[in-house]
Design goal:
single chain; 226 residues; alpha/beta; Rossmann fold; five-stranded mixed barrel; 9 strands; 26% strand; globular
C-alpha cells in the first residue's frame, strides 16, 4: 500500500513493542482471530505493519526504535496511537494478564522533580469507554528488571501502581498533533511475590489468559473508531 493510500485509510494505530507480545499477536493473526489482515513493511524493516478495518497494527521486538516508529506514524498521517506495554504490578489488586490504561507515568529523571507525563485525555477516555477496564494506573517507567528497581516500597507510597518499560517515552514523544495512550498488560505482581519469573513462564494458564486478553483487546481496538 502506498503512503498516500495509507494516509487515507488509517483511523488510528496500535503499536506493540515486546518480543513475547509480538509473537503472541502474530499467532493470533495467523489463526484469523482478528479479521483480515494484509502485511507489509517499511523500507528499513524496523517493524511489521498490518492494516485491518482502517487501523494500523505495528509490532516489533525492540524498543530502541519506539520514538522513530511514532514519528513515522505521524508522517503517515496517524494522529491517534494506542501503545501496548508490559508491566509489573506493585499492588495486589492488579490482576496478572489484565490490561490497564496508564493515566500518568514518570521516568526516573521526571520522578525526581515530581512532573507526571500524561496521555491525551480525549483518547484515554475513548479507550476506557471502549475497553471498560476495572481501573486506570499510574506507572513508573524503568528499563531495569522490576526486581532490581530500588525502593519499590517508596514507589508504592508515592502512588505508583506499576513499573513498565516504555510509557514514559511514549508520553514524552507524543506531543502536538499526535495523541497517545498506553495500555499496560500485567505480566507479574511484586506484591504477590512474583519477582524473577514473568507470568508466562509460570505455566500454561498465564499464557492462555494473556492470549485471551490480547485477542479481546485487538478485536476491539481494530474495529473501533477512537
Amino acid at each position: 500500500m502506498s503512503s498516500d493510500a495509507q494516509r487515507r485509510a488509517a483511523n488510528h494505530a496500535v503499536l506493540v513493542v515486546d518480543p513475547f507480545l509480538k509473537d503472541a499477536i502474530e499467532n493470533i493473526m495467523r489463526e484469523g482471530q482478528i479479521g483480515e489482515v494484509s502485511e507489509t513493511t517499511f523500507p528499513d524493516v524496523i517493524f511489521t505493519k498490518s492494516w485491518s478495518n482502517d487501523v494500523a497494527l505495528l509490532t516489533f521486538a525492540d524498543s530502541q526504535y519506539l520514538a522513530e516508529a511514532i514519528l513515522e506514524l505521524k508522517v503517515l498521517g496517524m494522529r491517534k496511537i494506542v501503545f501496548l506495554d508490559v508491566a509489573t504490578a506493585l499492588k495486589p489488586g492488579l490482576k496478572v494478564s489484565q490490561a490497564y490504561p496508564v493515566y500518568a507515568t514518570s521516568t526516573p529523571v521526571k520522578e525526581e522533580f515530581y512532573v507526571p507525563l500524561v496521555p491525551s485525555m480525549q483518547l484515554l477516555n475513548a479507550v476506557v469507554e471502549l475497553l471498560e477496564p476495572e481501573r486506570e494506573v499510574i506507572a513508573f517507567t524503568s528499563r531495569l528488571p522490576p526486581q532490581d528497581v530500588a525502593m519499590t516500597d517508596l514507589l508504592k507510597k508515592k502512588g505508583f501502581d506499576v513499573i513498565d518499560k516504555n510509557s514514559g517515552l511514549v508520553y514524552e514523544v507524543c506531543k502536538g498533533s499526535v495523541e497517545c495512550v498506553t495500555l499496560d498488560l500485567i505480566d507479574s505482581n511484586l506484591a504477590k511475590g512474583i519477582e524473577k519469573k514473568t507470568a508466562w513462564e509460570e505455566g500454561g494458564k498465564y499464557y492462555s489468559s494473556i492470549l485471551d486478553t490480547l485477542t479481546d483487546l485487538f478485536k476491539k481496538l481494530l474495529s473501533a473508531e477512537l
